[in-house]
Amino acid sequence: MASLLDQLSAMTVVVADTGELDAIRTFEPRDATTNPSLILAAAQKPAYQALIDEALKSSREHIGSGAPVEDVVNEALDEICVIFGKEILRIVPGRVSTEVDARLSFDTEATIEKARKLIRLYEELGVTKDRVLIKIASTWEGIKAAETLEKEGINCNLTLLFGFCQAVACAEAGVTLISPFVGRILDWFKAETGRDSYPGPEDPGVISVTKIFNYFKKFGYKTEVMGASFRNIEEIIELAGCDLLTISPKLLEQLRNTKEPLLRKLNKENPSLAEEEIHVDKNKFDSMMALDRMASEKLDEGIRGFSKAIETLELQLAHRLAVLEGGAAFSHAVQEIFLLNDLDGDGCITREEWLGSDAVFDALDHDHDGRLLQDDVCSGLGAALSLSTV
Ligand code: E4P
């Protein structure tokens, strides 16, 4: 019998929910999604250090040598997301989702500007915009930004979607795709009720995505539905037949290793739904969100969580930039010292050649052999550098 993963792939587009290139290679999904927490996790791997350094160097070049560190880091953040996206697109045949800075979630104009910039950076790297989904939090402001971007031909993926009104507002705004979350809804209900598990069909995240899917299909909305944020494979099994599902490598592995029959649960040809069509303007959106404590709390918490991930990554980038630029300045300083002092150019500076004071010569001459080699100068300057940064 075919694995659950193979059976699922025959009825739903399977998407990898990760920034890890090896995991994407392993499962050969059509598309992949990233978010700030996933990029932060991937950035911790030594394998991606070169990629991060490349982004920092190119940002420094773009921004200029005199620019403050925050500006370089800010620029690097965008470049890192795009470089990761480009690497992912070397592996998947379809699309990658790249998330706009979550701190802009309540600012329509800033979100539009950031999305345009990300698309521009992709185009500079030779990636066409049809292969990119710009991920934006499903706040009212985010949805309005997506409405404008879609009219410009920039495809959007509206994320952090927990409430029905968020989904309807996205569909009415003509967004390409939504990512209704499943697992985070389950997390909320478990914490709220004290229950420690829900069978798949009763899982409140599953019920939410099922309702949204059937509503879109019944009323003919083109917006694709991609279930996201899974906690177990039962949730995935219950959503077989959804347009797309984005799944972490851990759960993809479980699906691949499980052999049991998989039934289609969602059918776009035959949506089952009792709901009537509704229309969502800003007032309706606000009032529906106010009545849906789970959706409001999870949306807020999600934005805060992704913002925190970005801030952590920014700190790490600032630190790495200091190392990279400190390192360059450092070797430049050592070369200068040799140019000035190594008069006969034999690669060592004797006390007679040394133009500085005896005290400094003695401090650098660790082995007291009366000669300074590159290593002596490097370790002497290195000690000074680390003292100055304590
Ligand atoms: C994908 O688009 C989402 O960002 C992701 O599925 C969230 O998953 P999590 O709830 O496990 O963080």
Structural account:
With about 400 residues, the protein is α/β, with parallel strands linked by helices. The protein folds into two domains: about 5-320, TIM Barrel (Alpha-Beta Barrel); about 340-390, no CATH class. About 55% of the residues lie in helices and about 10% in strands. The strands form two sheets. The protein has an eight-stranded parallel β-barrel, surrounded by nine helices. Helix 6 (about 110-125) links the parallel strand 3 (about 95-100) and strand 4. Helix 5 (about 70-90) crosses helix 14 (about 295-340), helix 6 packs across helix 7 (about 140-150) and helix 14 (about 295-340) packs antiparallel against helix 16. The protein is elongated, with a radius of gyration of 27 Å. Bound molecules: erythose-4-phosphate. Erythose-4-phosphate (E4P) binds near residues 33, 35, 183 and 246.
List the main descriptive attributes of the protein structure presented here:
390 residues; alpha/beta; TIM Barrel; 2 domains; 57% helix; binds erythose-4-phosphate
Q: How big a fraction of the residues is strand?
A: 5-15%
Strand order of the biggest β-sheet:
1-2-3-4-5-6-7-8
Low-confidence stretches: 384-390
Number of domains: 2
Named CATH architecture of the largest domain: Alpha-Beta Barrel
Total beta-strand segments: 10
CATH homologous group name of the largest domain: Aldolase class I
Give the rounded overall mean pLDDT: 92
The major pleated sheet works out as: 8 strands, parallel, barrel
CATH topology annotation of the largest domain: TIM Barrel
Shape: elongated
Bound molecules: erythose-4-phosphate
In angstroms, what separates the terminal alpha carbons? Answer: 61 Å
User: What is the tally of helical segments?
Assistant: 16
